[in-house]
Amino acid sequence: MTAPTDMISLEQAQELILSRVAKLDTETVPLLDAMGRVAAVDLASDMNVSPFAHAAMDGFAMHREDLLEASDENPVELDVIAEVPAGGVFEGAIGHGQCVRIMTGAALPADADAVEKYEVVGIVSGDGKTGSRVSFSSCPKERANIRETGEEAKAGEVVVSAGERIGDAGVGFLASCGVLEVPVYRRPRVAIIPIGSELVEPPAIPGPGHIRNSNGYAIAACVRNAGGIADMHPIVPDTLEALSAAVTKAVADHDFVITTGGASNGDYDFIKPVVEELGELLMTTVNMRPGKAQTFGLVEGVPVFGLPGNPAAAYMGFQLIIRKGLRAMQGYSAFEHPHVWAHISQGRKKKDSRRIFLRATLTRGDDGQLTVTPASNQSSGLFGVIQKSNCVAIMPEGFEPIATGDLIECILLDVPEEVVL
């Protein structure tokens, strides 16, 4: 069993956070607000969808047996006796030798058993509407171009299962099924506590020795992107007492607490002793670069995660570890961003045995081959490089160099976890 001070692998860190969070309670939201969230219960249709058989395209409805002998050499002619627009109903009878012009979505006449699309029907006389005579050069298949009653869903049938993410098309599907209120897992309320006596809030112009609080804004944006509710707290100075008070206050009314800065082993880094003093310290370092210093524990049962102060290190810690926990709390079952393999544009030596995540850009050549180009500046103190990157390229643990053209694994952090490539 590892001690909290032992360096652990990224996979162990991910498993640790997933083991210490649980799905939140549920809330019922209007259908549009359920988009992108996870259904907490099975959702069933209140009727057949569609409630009636209807034409799948503009055309002519008829008795199929009238056209059994139809061919290019021997076309069969029928009289058009009526028109049925979308929203209309033809309640008469279709006699043999007759047909009805019908629009997409219109209810199928009771005694029609096929629809032939308009484009392949010839006009013998008239304009194709009521009173015209039209010709058919083939016999459609039985029930051709007809959408049947209950084709998409039957009354009482479960159309979205508990645990299923509701997409934008799902919103339309649920609307057609009469589901306008949806029980979903609650979004976690996340406290974000920037740590550092050197920090000032934008738009203040920093004086000597000070910098703007960019980490707080970036992590708040990450929380929102992960589906959480970001609650930015005031900057906390570098004292044990101030940080202890801020964490104690935050865990009282939040589902998750994230601090930025103060996660290393300097004289003014206090998140580790604060978590250990107030609760249970579970993790302090992860075998990754950037982002070695990652503190995780529980205070009053609430997950508290201390991110490093360097922007890239904080960002990678969130994306690769915290994000999974926040998604698990919302009932999601997919936790991995898509991975692809690409040829690296330029070889790289390795002076650090940790797993290294290079901010990089993927491109696809005319031959379809993916190439990944790491940013020239890999400083962990930069946000701009991440903004201009579209992936991170992974250099595995150890000191093995990578040669130009080698295949290297890349994570597409801007592609949703549900996407399969």
UniProtKB/TrEMBL annotation:
It holds the Pfam family MoeA_N. InterPro entries: MoaB/Mog-like_dom_sf, MoaB/Mog_dom, MoeA-like, MoeA_C_domain_IV, MoeA_C_domain_IV_sf, MoeA_linker/N, MoeA_linker/N_sf. Its cofactor is Mg(2+). It catalyses: adenylyl-molybdopterin + molybdate = Mo-molybdopterin + AMP + H(+). Gene3D superfamilies: MoaB/Mog-like domain, MoeA, C-terminal, domain IV, Molybdopterin biosynthesis moea protein, domain 2, Molybdopterin biosynthesis moea protein, domain 3. One of its GO terms (cellular component) is cytosol. Its EC number is 2.10.1.1. Pathway: Cofactor biosynthesis; molybdopterin biosynthesis. The keyword Magnesium applies. Keywords: Magnesium, Metal-binding, Molybdenum, Molybdenum cofactor biosynthesis, Transferase. Catalyzes the insertion of molybdate into adenylated molybdopterin with the concomitant release of AMP. PANTHER family: GEPHYRIN, MOLYBDOPTERIN BIOSYNTHESIS PROTEIN. This is Molybdopterin molybdenumtransferase. It comes from Slackia heliotrinireducens (strain ATCC 29202 / DSM 20476 / NCTC 11029 / RHS 1).
